[in-house]
Design brief:
With 454 residues, the protein is mainly beta. Among the domains are: 7-168 and 302-352, no CATH class; 378-431, no CATH class. The protein contains 5 helices and 27 strands. The chain has helices at 49-60, 303-318, 362-365, 398-408, 433-436; strands spanning 7-14, 17-23, 40-46, 76-82, 90-95, 111-116, 121-123, 125-128, 131-133, 146-152, 158-161, 164-165, 172-184, 189-200, 208-220, 227-230, 239-242, 249-255, 260-263, 275-281, 291-300, 334-336, 344-350, 353-361, 380-382, 412-418, 425-431. The strands form 7 sheets. Strands 6, 7, 10, 11, 12 and 22 form a 6-stranded antiparallel β-sheet that branches. It has a 5-stranded mixed β-sheet with strand order 8-9-5-4-23, with no helix packed on it.
Length: 454
C-alpha cells in the first residue's frame, strides 16, 4: 500500500508552467522516477517552449539552483485508503511547500469523517501530525457500499471526495517464484535472480487491479561483536567482557515502491495468472541468504483510480528526457466545496483487499545456480607491535590499539584472540560497525508473524 501517497515536496508556480514534486517517504516505499532526492516524482505540464529551455538549463547545471518564484500557493494534500480489512484506516493531510529540503507541513487541526450511501457517518480520530484514524471497532469498509471522504480545516475550508464504490476482490490463489533475469544499465547488462508471481482466483466483474507488497527478511551480520573492551589501570591488561545479547540476527523490512496495476479487457480471461510482483537480484541483496517473507495485497479498484495510478506510471516511464512524450496529468478525486477552482492533490482510495504471505528459504533457491550476495565486510587484526615506531618511546599499548581503531578510525572491536597454549593475548579484532551489529541496518525485534523455518 502506498501510504503518504501524495505528499507534495514542492510546488512552484511559474507563468506558463506548473511543476510539482510528489514525495513518497522511504518507510512506505518510493517511486524512482527522475532520481530526485527524498524519493520524489516530478510531474510536468508545459504550456510554452520557455519551460523546456528552463528545464534544460537546470538539468545541465553543475550546482543546484533553487529559484525564488512568486505566485506560490500552498495546496492541500490528501492521502487515504479504506478497505474491508479489520483494521484502522488512516487519512493523512498535509500542505505543499516550496523548500524541497523541508518536510511536508501536516494539517493537524481538521475535522475528518467518512460517509456511506446508507446514511452512516464515521468520525476519524485526530492522531496528531496530520494523521486521522478510524476506530476499527466501529467502522469497516464493506464491498458494495459507496464512501465519501469529508474534510473541514480550521479556516473553514471544506473538501470532499467523489463517491467511491468499494468493489469486491477475488482471493489470491497462490504466490510462487522462478529463476529469471532482468536488464539493467539501459539494457546493456543482465542481472540474475528470481521473479515472484501470483495467480488469482476468478473475479465476477473485476476489470482493474492493483497490487502492493511488503517484504521482510531475516539476516545475519558477518562478524558479530561478542566482547566489550574494558580499560583498567594497566593499559596493557584490558578486560574482555562477553556480551550477553549479541546482535547477530535481525530483520529488515521494505514496502513496495512500484506501481503494479492491470486492466482486463472484455474477452480476456478474468483469472489472473503469473502476475509479476517483484524481481530479486540474488547477488545484489541479502534478502535470500536466510529466510524471506513477502505479504502481497490485491486490490480491486475503480477505473478512475486505475487512471490515477496509470498517470503516475506514465511519469515513471517518461523519465527525465525533455524530448520524451509528456506524462498525463495526475488526477485527484478530492475537491473543494467552497472554491471549485482550488486545486487539491492526492487521492481517496476505496477497495476491498485480499492478501497472502509467502516464505522463501535459502535452500529453496540454493540449487538454482544463482549468484548470492556477499557482505562487503572484512576484519582487521592488530597488536601493539603493529603501531611500533623506531624510537619506541613510549611503546604502544593495547589501549593505544583500541583507541586508534575505535576512536580514530571508527571501527568496532568485536573480540580478542589468544594463544591457545599459553593464553597470551595475541590480537584485537575489529570490523566496520555495520558488520558487527545487525541493529545498525535492521531491527532485532521479531515480527509478530515470523516463524523460523530453517
Amino acid at each position: 500500500m502506498f501510504s503518504n501517497l501524495c505528499q507534495i515536496l514542492t510546488v512552484l508556480t511559474v507563468r506558463g508552467s506548473n511543476k510539482y514534486y510528489i514525495c513518497f517517504p522511504v518507510n512506505y516505499g518510493s517511486i524512482d522516477v527522475n532520481k530526485k532526492d527524498n524519493n520524489c516524482i516530478m510531474l510536468k505540464r508545459h504550456k510554452s517552449i520557455i519551460t523546456i529551455v528552463v528545464l534544460s538549463l537546470l538539468c545541465s547545471c553543475i550546482d543546484p539552483y533553487t529559484p525564488k518564484l512568486s505566485g506560490y500557493s500552498s495546496l492541500l494534500v490528501v492521502d487515504g485508503l479504506i478497505t474491508d480489512a479489520n483494521s484502522s484506516y488512516i487519512v493523512r493531510l498535509s500542505r505543499t511547500f516550496q523548500d524541497q529540503n523541508s518536510t511536508p507541513p501536516p494539517v493537524s487541526d481538521a475535522t475528518v469523517f467518512i460517509s456511506d450511501d446508507a446514511g452512516n457517518n464515521n468520525n476519524l480520530i485526530n492522531g496528531g501530525n496530520g494523521i486521522y484514524k478510524t476506530d476499527s471497532t466501529q467502522f469497516n469498509g464493506s464491498p458494495g457500499r459507496t464512501y465519501v471522504l469529508h474534510i473541514k480545516t480550521s479556516d473553514g475550508s471544506e473538501y470532499e471526495s467523489d463517491a467511491c464504490l468499494m468493489n469486491p476482490v477475488p482471493d489470491i490463489d497462490s504466490i510462487y517464484f522462478a529463476k529469471d533475469q532482468q536488464l539493467v544499465n539501459n539494457g546493456t547488462q543482465t542481472q540474475d535472480g528470481i521473479s515472484i508471481y501470483l495467480d488469482s482466483k476468478e473475479g465476477d466483474n473485476n476489470q482493474y487491479y492493483r497490487w502492493a507488497y511488503e517484504e521482510t527478511w531475516k539476516f545475519k551480520v558477518s562478524d558479530p561483536k561478542k566482547f566489550n573492551y574494558v580499560k583498567t589501570s594497566d593499559p596493557n591488561n584490558p578486560i574482555f567482557m562477553p556480551i550477553a545479547d549479541v546482535k547477530e540476527f535481525c530483520w529488515k523490512n521494505r514496502q513496495s515502491d512500484e506501481i503494479l496495476i492491470r486492466s482486463i479487457s472484455d474477452g480476456q480471461p478474468k483469472k489472473i495468472s503469473k502476475q509479476p510482483v517483484i524481481f530479486i537480484a540474488t547477488g545484489e541483496s541479502d534478502r535470500l541468504l536466510l529466510q524471506y517473507n513477502i505479504l502481497v495485497k490485491q486490490y480491486s479498484i475503480s477505473k478512475n483510480e486505475f487512471d490515477f495510478w496509470n498517470s503516475l506510471k506514465q511519469v515513471n516511464e517518461t523519465g527525465g528526457d525533455i524530448f520524451a512524450r509528456q506524462p498525463y496529468a495526475v488526477l485527484s478525486n478530492i475537491h473543494s466545496t467552497n472554491n471549485p477552482k482550488e486545486r487539491v492533490l492526492g487521492y481517496f482510495q476505496v477497495s476491498a483487499v485480499s492478501q497472502q504471505r509467502k516464505n522463501i528459504l535459502y535452500r529453496d533457491v540454493a540449487l538454482m545456480g544463482l549468484p548470492f550476495y556477499s557482505y562487503p565486510c572484512r576484519t582487521l587484526e592488530y597488536n601493539p607491535m603493529d603501531f611500533a615506531t623506531l624510537c619506541m618511546c613510549p611503546p604502544p599499548t593495547w589501549d593505544d590499539v583500541y583507541w586508534h581503531l575505535c576512536i580514530i578510525e571508527d571501527y568496532a572491536f568485536i573480540e580478542p584472540t589468544f594463544n591457545q597454549v599459553s593464553d597470551i593475548l595475541l590480537e584485537l579484532v575489529f570490523t566496520r560497525p555495520e558488520c558487527a551489529n545487525c541493529e545498525l541496518t535492521g531491527t532485532s525485534k521479531r515480527p509478530y508473524f515470523w516463524v523460523d523455518l530453517n
